[in-house]
């Protein structure tokens, strides 16, 4: 385990110098260590029903999801680049791998998880995490708000067609979560709510849904195994599409979650290490018969925001406590009322949502394009129930809107010249496929004099489309016996223009 929350990259990050974020300091401080241990316990309790539910989605035994959550959490505590982030079996991964289980069985699922983890390691080593810089702030806000909505919607099934006592228990749980932090921060409110409602349920013999109703808990430790699949090209063709999908969805959710925790804690994590760490954790999970997973945003928010954890200790303990709870204390854990966990997750949803982003005053100040990107991200995520699809949709929308906005900033103006035999045009703005398409129509080919100068000193040539457009302009003047001169290119634009001009063919 990395003792100071530091990463083996030679880089220096704020959290490396801050003792509050080091494992060594937490081990030396009883208060800090207690916070980390209690946070891990609360997360472990919240992981149990989630892992069981995701196992049902994937079409596998609950043990597969629970063991995956254990191995993912413990592995990423050592391998990941974002301290205090929780990785386990997730709904997004379950949706991706469900067809493999349904059509080919559990062994092919395990092979898919191992291959998907391998792909994640390769992508991590290739630096795919650096693509995070291309995700706009509006997409991040949409991601957070969509996450909050999904967490809330996931609790609805636990509130429909249930005994009436569930509703007052949820209300009491919410009251504890709101009021307890005002009394003390020594014991996290989520743990108090879970313990209190469980005691009330057991002592008063209240008949409400419990964790045991979600599925059978395992009674033994996970064991190392190899998938029983033929090592053939046909097997690879079956599992490869799902493995790629799992790898991309898992990386996207994990890196977005890491960025969110960075913002909350005011520290910087190593995204490249997190990327290959997720892959390695999935490989380990596959060899122990797990269904694979990635960062869990809801449980991470419980760990970091609600419980105040900051180190790898909480992540490791979440996995360790999960195994102890389901294997050793399964009968006790099974009596936890779902109402308690629903209350915890509802408060996580409320705390996760960026309420400032939807205030009328914020919406009035924010450019409409930014608001649209956020709305698209939220809407697509909620409709598809897939954060990765929502993020991709938001990024694509932002790209289109940005290209459209930049395209309108390009202008062609005529400069006054003392010599009427020469006309000079000044082009300003970024010239690329979206802005240069209409450039060809901005010149008076018929009435211009024999010599025309097109000054690009205030413009930049970004792609082949622009070079093709400039060639078309020169050609239109040449067809009328006139000469067009391209001048003022900066170094990069001149290099691109000289390399491509006259070599793109007519109309290309």
Automatic annotation (TrEMBL):
<dbReference type="GO" id="GO:0016020">
    <property type="term" value="C:membrane"/>
</dbReference>
<keyword id="KW-0472">Membrane</keyword>
<dbReference type="InterPro" id="IPR011547">
    <property type="entry name" value="SLC26A/SulP_dom"/>
</dbReference>
<keyword id="KW-0812">Transmembrane</keyword>
<feature type="transmembrane region" description="Helical">
    <location>
        <begin position="162"/>
        <end position="180"/>
    </location>
</feature>
<feature type="transmembrane region" description="Helical">
    <location>
        <begin position="231"/>
        <end position="251"/>
    </location>
</feature>
<keyword id="KW-1133">Transmembrane helix</keyword>
<dbReference type="InterPro" id="IPR002645">
    <property type="entry name" value="STAS_dom"/>
</dbReference>
<feature type="transmembrane region" description="Helical">
    <location>
        <begin position="138"/>
        <end position="156"/>
    </location>
</feature>
<feature type="transmembrane region" description="Helical">
    <location>
        <begin position="313"/>
        <end position="330"/>
    </location>
</feature>
<feature type="transmembrane region" description="Helical">
    <location>
        <begin position="373"/>
        <end position="402"/>
    </location>
</feature>
<feature type="transmembrane region" description="Helical">
    <location>
        <begin position="108"/>
        <end position="126"/>
    </location>
</feature>
<feature type="transmembrane region" description="Helical">
    <location>
        <begin position="192"/>
        <end position="211"/>
    </location>
</feature>
<feature type="transmembrane region" description="Helical">
    <location>
        <begin position="37"/>
        <end position="58"/>
    </location>
</feature>
<feature type="domain" description="STAS">
    <location>
        <begin position="421"/>
        <end position="508"/>
    </location>
</feature>
<feature type="transmembrane region" description="Helical">
    <location>
        <begin position="336"/>
        <end position="353"/>
    </location>
</feature>
<dbReference type="InterPro" id="IPR052706">
    <property type="entry name" value="Membrane-Transporter-like"/>
</dbReference>
<protein>
    <submittedName>
        <fullName>Sodium-independent anion transporter</fullName>
    </submittedName>
</protein>
<dbReference type="InterPro" id="IPR036513">
    <property type="entry name" value="STAS_dom_sf"/>
</dbReference>
<dbReference type="Pfam" id="PF00916">
    <property type="entry name" value="Sulfate_transp"/>
</dbReference>
<feature type="transmembrane region" description="Helical">
    <location>
        <begin position="64"/>
        <end position="80"/>
    </location>
</feature>
């Amino acid at each position: 385990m990395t003792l100071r929350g530091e990463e083996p990259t030679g880089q220096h990050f704020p959290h490396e110098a801050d003792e509050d974020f080091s494992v060594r300091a937490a081990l030396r401080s009883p208060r800090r260590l207690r916070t980390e241990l209690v946070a891990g316990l609360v997360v472990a309790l919240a992981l149990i029903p989630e892992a069981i539910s995701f196992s049902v989605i994937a079409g596998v035994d609950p043990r597969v999801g629970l063991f995956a959550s254990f191995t993912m959490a413990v592995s990423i505590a050592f391998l990941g680049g974002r301290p205090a982030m929780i990785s386990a079996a997730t709904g997004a991964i379950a949706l991706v791998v469900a067809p493999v289980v349904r059509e080919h069985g559990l062994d092919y699922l395990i092979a898919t998880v191992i291959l998907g983890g391998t792909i994640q390691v390769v992508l991590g080593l290739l630096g795919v995490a650096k693509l995070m810089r291309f995700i706009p702030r509006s997409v991040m806000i949409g991601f957070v708000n969509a996450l909050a909505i999904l967490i809330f919607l996931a609790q609805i099934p636990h509130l429909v067609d249930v005994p009436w006592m569930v509703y007052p228990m949820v209300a009491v749980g919410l009251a504890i979560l709101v009021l307890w932090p005002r009394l003390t921060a020594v014991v996290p409110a989520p743990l108090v709510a879970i313990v209190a409602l469980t005691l009330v349920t057991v002592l008063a013999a209240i008949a409400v849904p419990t964790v045991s109703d979600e599925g059978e808990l395992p009674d033994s430790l996970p064991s190392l195994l190899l998938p029983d699949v033929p090592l053939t090209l046909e097997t690879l063709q079956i599992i490869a599409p799902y493995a790629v999908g799992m790898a991309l969805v898992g990386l996207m959710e994990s890196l977005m979650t890491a960025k969110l925790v960075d913002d909350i804690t005011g520290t910087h994590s190593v995204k490249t290490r997190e990327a290959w760490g997720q892959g390695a954790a999935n490989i380990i999970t596959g060899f122990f018969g797990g269904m694979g997973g990635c960062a869990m945003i809801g449980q991470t928010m419980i760990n970091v925001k609600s419980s105040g954890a900051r180190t790898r200790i909480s992540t490791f303990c979440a996995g360790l406590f999960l195994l102890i709870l389901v294997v050793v204390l399964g009968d006790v854990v099974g009596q936890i009322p779902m109402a308690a966990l629903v209350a915890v997750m509802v408060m996580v949803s409320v705390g996760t949502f960026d309420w400032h982003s939807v205030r009328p005053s914020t919406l009035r100040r924010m450019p409409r394009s930014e608001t649209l990107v956020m709305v698209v991200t939220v809407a697509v995520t909620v409709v598809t129930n897939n954060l990765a699809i929502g993020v991709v949709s938001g990024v694509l929308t932002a790209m289109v809107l940005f290209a459209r906005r930049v395209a309108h900033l390009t202008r062609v103006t005529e400069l006054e010249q003392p010599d009427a035999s020469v006309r000079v045009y000044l082009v300003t703005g970024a010239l690329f496929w979206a802005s240069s398409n209409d450039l060809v129509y901005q010149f008076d080919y018929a009435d211009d004099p024999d010599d025309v100068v097109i000054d690009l000193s205030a413009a930049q040539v970004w792609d082949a489309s622009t070079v093709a457009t400039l060639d078309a302009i020169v050609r239109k003047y040449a067809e009328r016996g006139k000469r067009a001169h391209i001048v003022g290119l900066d170094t990069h634009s001149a290099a691109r223009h000289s390399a491509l001009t006259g070599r793109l063919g007519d109309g290309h």
